[in-house]
Amino acid sequence: MTENKITYSTFETEHRVRPDDIDLFQHVHSSRYIDYVLAARYEQMEQHYGMAMEKFLERGFGWVVSSVQMNYKRPLNLGDYFLVRTGINNITERVCRVAFTINNKVTGKLCCDGWFDYVMIDLKTGRGARIPEDVIEHYSV
Fold it and tell me: Pfam families of this UniProt entry (predicted)?
């Protein structure tokens, strides 16, 4: 991805580990970390950016994950409260990279970090679409 010089905001969402998040090793299953980031982004799009996913759908657009990098540091366990921090790292005409961290709220220790690449799609064709300039501007907070 081509680097840009814009600095983007980081937002935080709190969640708690539920019983259905736990795997047979008695800690959060790795796939749930993806769910945590997706849930946090969904909330943050509306609460912090003022442009919820529904606004994209109304315009005939959607976002799909094209790549993910996750680095597991330490486990989360049943009942743990944790903070998901996300922020746009970079936006090009076709890809939005969102960096994230997941920290245990009580200990403050990093449990997982990484990034997601999101591609905008045209819902009519199901194909990748250019990210409209007004969206890039709107998300440059």
Answer: 4HBT_2
Q: CATH class for domain 10-138?
A: alpha beta
- Contact assessment for residue 95 and residue 46, using Cβ atoms and an 8 Å cutoff: no
- Could you say which DSSP state residue 58 is in? H
Residue 50 pLDDT: 86
Cβ(102)–Cβ(82) below 8 Å: yes
Q: What percent of the chain clears pLDDT 70, i.e. is strictly above it?
A: 96
Residue with tokens 């009942």: 79
Residue 4 pLDDT greater than 80, yes or no: no
Contact in structure between 14 and 75 (CB atoms under 8 Å): no
Q: Is residue 14 classed exposed, middle or buried when 0-12, 13-18 and 19+ CB atoms within 10 A define those classes?
A: exposed
For CA atoms 58, 130, 135, 133, the dihedral sign is negative
DSSP state of 50: S
Token digits for 133? Answer: 């300039």
Single pTM value for the model: 0.90
